Amino acid sequence: MGASLTREEAATRAEQIRVEDYRVTVDLSGAEDPANTTFGSEVTVRFTAEEGAETFIDFIHESVSSVELNGEVLDVDDVVEGSRIRLPELGQANELRVVGRALYSRSGEGLHRYIDPQDGEVYIYTQYEPADCRRVFAVFEQPDLKAVYRFTVITPAPWLAASNGELLSSEATDSCDVPGSVTHEFAPTQRISSYITTILAGPYTRVTDEWSGTGSQGEALTVPLALYCRRALAEHMDAEELFALTKQGLDFFPQLFGVAYPWGKYEQAFVPEYNLGAMENPGMVTFTEDYLFPSGATRAQLAGRANTLMHEMSHMWFGDLVTMRWWDDLWLKESFAEFMGAYACVHATQYTDAWVTFALARKEWAYRQDQLPTTHPVVADIVDLEAARQNFDGITYAKGASVLKQLVAFVGEDAFMDACRAYFRRFAFGNTDLDDFLGVLDEACDHDVRAWADLWLRTTGVPVLAVTAPDDDAAQPVRASLTQDASPLRPHVLTAGSYARELGGEAVVKTARVEVRVPAEPGTTELAGLAPRSGPGGTRGVGASSGEGPDGSDTSEPSEGAGAVLLLNDTDLTYCLAHPDPRSLAGLVEIVGDIADPLARAVAHSQLWAAVRDGRLCPREYVLMVARRCTAETHAAILTTVLDHARQALGQYVPVTYRTTVRRTLLDALGASMLAAEPGSDAQLILARAFAREAARDGKYARPIQEWLGGAQSVPGLQLTPQLRWTMLTAVTATGHSTVSALEREHAQDPTRDGHLGYLEAAAAMRSDRSKEQAWERIVSGTLSNDELSATVSGFQLAAPAVLHRYEDSYFEHLSGWWAGHSMEIATRMVRGLYPRAVDAQAASSDPAAAAAEHPVVRATRDWLGQNADAPAALRRIVTELGDDAERAVRLQVMCLSR
Question: Where do the Aminopeptidase N-like N-terminal domain residues begin and end (predicted)?
Answer without folding.
Answer: 95-196
